[in-house]
TrEMBL record:
InterPro entries: 2-oxoacid_dehydrogenase, 2-oxoacid_DH_actylTfrase, Biotin_lipoyl, CAT-like_dom_sf, E3-bd_dom_sf, PSBD, Single_hybrid_motif, SucB. GO terms for biological process: L-lysine catabolic process to acetyl-CoA via saccharopine; tricarboxylic acid cycle. The gene is sucB. GO terms for cellular component: cytosol; oxoglutarate dehydrogenase complex. Residues 93-104, 254-269 have a biased composition (Low complexity). This is Dihydrolipoyllysine-residue succinyltransferase component of 2-oxoglutarate dehydrogenase complex. Its EC number is 2.3.1.61. Coiled coil: none annotated. Keywords: Acyltransferase, Lipoyl, Transferase, Tricarboxylic acid cycle. Residues 77-104, 181-207, 254-276 are annotated as: Disordered. Forms a 24-polypeptide structural core with octahedral symmetry. Part of the 2-oxoglutarate dehydrogenase (OGDH) complex composed of E1 (2-oxoglutarate dehydrogenase), E2 (dihydrolipoamide succinyltransferase) and E3 (dihydrolipoamide dehydrogenase); the complex contains multiple copies of the three enzymatic components (E1, E2 and E3). Belongs to the 2-oxoacid dehydrogenase family. PANTHER family: DIHYDROLIPOYLLYSINE-RESIDUE SUCCINYLTRANSFERASE COMPONENT OF 2-OXOGLUTARATE DEHYDROGENASE COMPLEX, MITOCHONDRIAL, DIHYDROLIPOYLLYSINE-RESIDUE SUCCINYLTRANSFERASE COMPONENT OF 2-OXOGLUTARATE DEHYDROGENASE COMPLEX, MITOCHONDRIAL-RELATED. Residues 209-246 form the Peripheral subunit-binding (PSBD) domain.
Amino acid sequence: MTEVRVPTLGESVTEATVATWFKKPGDTVAVDEMLCELETDKVTVEVPSPVAGTLSDIVANEGDTVGVDALLANISEGDAGSDTAPKAKEAAAEAPKASGGASESVDVMVPTLGESVSEATVSTWFKKVGDSVQQDEMLCELETDKVSVEVPAPASGTLTEIIAAEGSTVEAGGKLAVMSSGDAPAAAPADTQYSTPPAGNGGAGKDIKDGPAAEKAMAEAGISRDAVTGTGKDGRATKADVAAAVAAAKSAPAPAAAAAAPRAPVSADDASREERVKMTRLRQTIARRLKDAQNTAAILTTYNEVDMTECMALRKEYKDLFEKKHGVRLGFMSFFTKACCHALKEVPEVNAEIDGTDIVYKNFVHMGIAAGTPQGLVVPVIRDADQMSFAEIEKAIAEKGKRARDGKLSMAEMQGGTFTISNGGVYGSLMSSPILNPPQSGILGMHKIQDRPMVINGEIKIRPMMYLALSYDHRIVDGKGAVTFLVRVKEALEDPRRLLMDL
């Protein structure tokens, strides 16, 4: 007999409420199959089966409050359980099982997602139940806050069960699917592929039952379910969601109730021509971080313009020789990166960040280069850019840019930046105000190069000009420092020889 106990619930969390039992006494269960769901004040916790066997009895019923390590149920081990899903037995009654017991069950698990990333969304399944797969063939794609992660098949065989459907939210180390290695056929037909309710948001029209703790909290607060946004499994409301809804209702002014509607009225004809698409996790993260930047930092932007004549002439003269020797094209980004590194040494507060009541000055430059991708804006980081040559910078930018477009960037490659350059000129932007990339205190916006008439030594001449914009956090960077920084960048670009002389 194996005991099923309450797992560790998290820091400072000592008890939970049994929200839902997915199994009943007498049911057969497989290893790691979900038995029940617990609900704490902050999160929803799923409890998997530690062994394969039969659920003997349930000690803690739905609605019961249990502490950490409390006994939830007992499982008797034996032939009743198997490594594959219990529904395989039901399928066996309808379809003869080929190959006998020659196949072996293989779990497909969520890989490591990166530093500080604990969950992801299943975006696409490339295979369906019953499909044959080769080892290392892509099974599905996961989407985290910043990158996409492809999950390969751990072995050759047949996909017998999909546990996490598209749209499901999964945790690092969680189970995605089950395969049978070898030539064994699928253990379950397509219409029985889900042995447990998939995690994530329920589909339209799906009846989701909230946990008893949340229902009790809503009853006590006198708040309707429509006013609560559920963040638990399948969109269930938790006690924390109810508390947040109550707090929002108290803080919101009464007249604002009429403005709570997210959209203006839409006619039936217009509604039929609309398309509603769920925001990707990356887009949600971009939206949240940009709004956090506006809410937190005192963002101000200063502008200047730079005459690109000398940079363009230098590039034209040496670009063929540069590419022949270094194997990479000479672009303008290396000039701007070098100019910014040079200016950051003179105005170090633009390369610093605020940590509480402290200012953290960085004696190095990890340059973020914003890159647009089909999935959204990402900012790969070139580490120690201030120690790199023109060729090293160009190679790093080319390599990071390709990996960004292919969705191959790792979390580590987008963390730790101290300053960012964003080039809106590649899209034709003539002037813009870039927004900070927290916790950084500065970002330089580049724009398109456009011929304009300029007065040079009393004469009007046509020059290739570019507007520059520096957005900075006014809490740490004063106007004098911001203007000085932008002037130094301008001077270095208009006379690139200054970079060689460290002037």
